[in-house]
Amino acid sequence: MTGASVTSARAGRLDGGRRERPGPGRLARDSLLIAGRYLRILRGNPARLIYPLLQPVLILVLFVSVMENLASSVAGGAYRELLIPGIMIQNVVLTAPVTGLAIVRDADTGLADRFRSLPMSRGAVLIGRSLSDTVVFFTQALVMIGVAYLLGFHVRTGLAGIAGLVVVAVGFGTALGVTCAWLALLIGDVETAERALFFPFIPLAFVSSAYAPVGRLAGWLQPVARVNPVSSAVGVVRGLAEGGSLAPAVIHLAAWTLVLAVVPGVLAVRRWQSSP
């Protein structure tokens, strides 16, 4: 740990060896320290960015090149205008499990025990990891928007629309990452988590409006796709890019984001506190 965290640990002790209950300010400070630790690891090993940055670009280029030739027009517009927002959100979904894997790896290596031995908010570890992952989601969103522009995708709402796209990608990805952290702590095993966390997100990404309008999906899939949070996120991204109506999709996405972040977040912190 850094000197700042050691000093913080000493300051957290009261007379008699008891530990004070961290307040909101302490929680924020400890969370930023943990986030800084993860970002320093990322800076020291930039190869960790290869997957979250290169994989989305590869999928984007391949899907646009292959699928646009199969469907030159959907709902009266160029297929790439429908497809690219879907791929942007799909890659956010497939990147989110990294948060949970990092948490369970720390627990497996014993680093979690070091964190628990300090008089710091235990929720700070989960919040700090999520904060560090927002940097990855932010960078990924900018790269995707840049490559999409080269492929002919344009955000008609200008800089405000681009900023909105980035906010949606970061917010939705972070909420999914919190859910993955809770699931990873429930699983508790690194190898199992590596396989299990990605499995439910594959149908989550494909049974949605990411690749085709919900009305063109199989009848039994349509009810699932309509309530899928991916469909809401994709709808908001398309609305921001095209300047269309946003209200229904924004309300749906905001509700899903709160559900995915708050409920699993509370459960993840409790799981972290109860872990041996």
Topology readout:
Elements: H1 3-11, H2 24-44, H3 50-70, E1 73-74, E2 77-78, H4 79-95, H5 97-109, H6 111-116, H7 123-150, H8 158-187, H9 190-196, H10 201-206, H11 222-227, H12 229-242, H13 247-274
Antiparallel strand pairs: 1-2
Oligomer: single chain
Q: Give the mean pLDDT.
A: 81
Structural class: mainly alpha
Order of helices and strands: HHHEEHHHHHHHHHH
User: What sort of overall outline do the alpha carbons produce when their principal axes are compared?
Assistant: globular
Q: What is the percent of helical residues?
A: over 70%
How many strands, which pairing sense, and closed or not: the largest β-sheet? 2 strands, antiparallel
Tally of separate domains: 1
Largest beta sheet: strand ordering: 1-2
Which stretches are poorly predicted, pLDDT < 50 over at least 5 residues? Answer: 1-19
Distance between the termini: 21 Å
The count of strands amounts to: 2
Strand content: under 5%
**Structural Rg:** 20 Å
Tally of separate helices: 13
Describe the structure.
- The protein has 276 residues and is an all-alpha fold.
- It has one domain.
- It has helices at 3-11, 24-44, 50-70, 79-95, 97-109, 111-116, 123-150, 158-187, 190-196, 201-206, 222-227, 229-242, 247-274; strands at residues 73-74, 77-78.
- The chain has a two-stranded antiparallel ribbon.
- 37% of the residues are buried.
Task: Explain briefly what this protein structure is.
The chain contains 13 helices and 2 strands; from the N terminus they run αααββαααααααααα. The protein is mainly alpha-helical and 276 residues long.
